[in-house]
Specification:
Blueprint: E1 13-17, E2 21-25, E3 37-40, H1 46-62, E4 67-71, H2 80-89, E5 92-101, E6 115-119, H3 125-136, H4 141-155, E7 160-167, E8 170-180, E9 183-191, H5 200-211, E10 216-222, H6 227-233, E11 237-248
Parallel strand pairs: 3-4, 9-10
Antiparallel strand pairs: 1-2, 2-3, 4-11, 5-10, 5-11, 6-7, 7-8, 8-9
Helix pairs in contact: 3-4
């Protein structure tokens, strides 16, 4: 299977498209940067970028949003001219890396009786929501509250399975698995800071591999962050990269 960024779920509505870009908007969650942005279909010139920048900034201001975000075509580096402009204008740049693995290639994980992975259900749903809220409040109360709507939407979706992990009966981490044809996408995988380095994240992933052995497992990693090194050690294969920039006003 040819895995590309097209296989990654984008939670947002395409409300405008032309030969240069797609404009994604998600009124259900205006504070979520990953749902409100412009994705360029080809690399823009400086003039084209500035025009798109003005358009998106005005659109977001009219909707009470305080950011602009742009994604660039996969596997293409941004020009030096644009990079200099981003630096001058106070943009934060990032690189998303797309990884994929055949579950059979994921390393074996020693079972730890202190770790229990459960599907989110009616019984543990409130624990899952509280765990997520406590994790997301660092990004602001509005974001954390809006994110609850996404968790609820996914809870009732046939295409998403949510998991919560307990360590000695205490909720300490979670992951969402987004299902599509032949693919299981790992999204929002986290373990709370105080419980890192206990094998909890690996156990969560092992659970996904065991449940979806007949699918390709994929995920997005921050190309500038350390978890990508963990994924590489776990035999994930790099399938591509995508540059992005973000500016918060």
């Amino acid at each position: 299977m040819n895995i590309t960024f097209e296989n990654i779920e984008t939670k947002g509505h395409v409300i405008k498209e032309n030969d240069l870009y797609k404009h994604y908007h998600y009124p259900e969650m205006l504070t979520r940067y990953d749902s409100n942005f412009i994705a360029f279909k080809r690399m823009p010139t400086m003039h084209e970028f500035k025009e798109a920048e003005v358009f998106l900034r005005n659109f977001h201001v009219n909707n009470g949003q305080n950011h602009v975000k742009f994604l660039f075509p996969p596997n293409q580096n941004v020009s030096v001219e644009l990079v200099e402009y981003f630096n001058m204008e106070g943009y934060t740049s990032g690189i998303n890396e797309l990884y994929a693995i055949n579950p059979a290639n994921f390393p074996m994980v020693s079972e730890n009786p202190n770790i229990q992975v459960e599907k989110v259900n009616a019984k543990n749903y409130e624990e899952y929501l509280k765990l997520q809220y406590d994790q997301e409040i660092q990004f602001g109360e509005n974001f954390a509250k809006e994110k609850v709507k996404l968790h609820q939407l996914r809870f009732h979706s046939n295409d998403v399975v949510q998991f919560i992990v307990f360590y000695q009966d205490k909720p300490v981490g979670a992951v969402d698995v987004i299902l599509s044809e032949g693919i299981a996408e790992i999204d929002n995988l986290f373990v709370i800071d105080s419980m890192q380095r206990k094998g909890i994240g690996s156990q969560l992933q092992r659970n996904v591999m065991d449940l979806y052995q007949d699918r390709t497992v994929i995920l997005i990693a921050d190309g500038k962050d350390t978890p990508r090194e963990m994924y590489q050690k776990q035999n994930y294969q790099l399938m591509g990269f995508q540059c992005e920039v973000l500016k918060v006003y």
